[in-house]
Amino acid sequence: MKKYTGNKNIPGVYQKIINEIPDCNTFIELFAGSAAISKILKTDNTTSIYLNDINECVLNRNVCTVLNAEIFNLNYEDFLTHYNTLIRSSRSTTIFADPPYMHETRPSQKKLYVNEMSNDDHIQLLSTLLQQIHNVIIIHPKNKLYDQMLTGWRIKEIKIRYNKKTSIENLYMNFPDPKELLDYSYIGSNCWERQRIKRQQVNIYNKIAILPGVQRNAILKKLSQSTF
């Protein structure tokens, strides 16, 4: 299968995105594309995954392998209207938006998608996402429009290599650093830190596992009751 243009299944990229997704009941890829993040996420059965893309061919080719996902073939505004009428206000939701990038931020002006977006379309997208009550994560190359419209949003920079060229992209988030993550599999800022943390986790686990049952359960209960 030909690699999907804009796919975020790139080492060092998907980990940074997943490390910003707060614990939530529902995770939405608003412009699903290859659905790379949902395919990699490790969640339990209590988390609902919604995948939406306006291009039905993309949906059929890329997202059918995401288990237990609900799939929608709508433009993003219709999907959000539909979704917001179904949920309860107390339900925690995270929206991940990876739209077709503004042409001025691309190395080439060549058309990449069946459904491209004009500058006015991007303004409408940001206006719509600014109105959401949910947690929102947007990924897009750094540019004046996004920086101006998303003033006050938390920003994390990511360097991505596409076809031997480096793109400086931002994660724009309307929520503070999450205290709890949806998936802890990739914590760490780089591969070496992730390896160190995994070794640390194994060492702590092994030390607790060899304790007598009552002592082990006492420690686990204390940890579950503690606030750090």
Mind explaining what this structure looks like?
- With about 230 residues, this protein is an alpha/beta fold.
- Strands 3-2-1-4-5-7-6 form a 7-stranded mixed sheet, with no helix packed on it.
- The longest helix is centred in the C-terminal third of the chain and has 19 residues, at about 190-210.
- About 25% of the residues are buried.
- The radius of gyration is 19 Å and the shape is globular.
- The protein has helices at about 15-20, 35-40, 55-60, 75-85, 120-130, 145-150, 190-210, 215-225; strands at about 25-30, 50, 70, 95, 135-140, 155-160, 165-175.
- The protein has 8 helices and 7 strands, in the order αβαβαβαβαβαββαα.
List its salient traits:
228 residues, seven-stranded mixed sheet, 19% strand, globular, alpha/beta, 8 helices
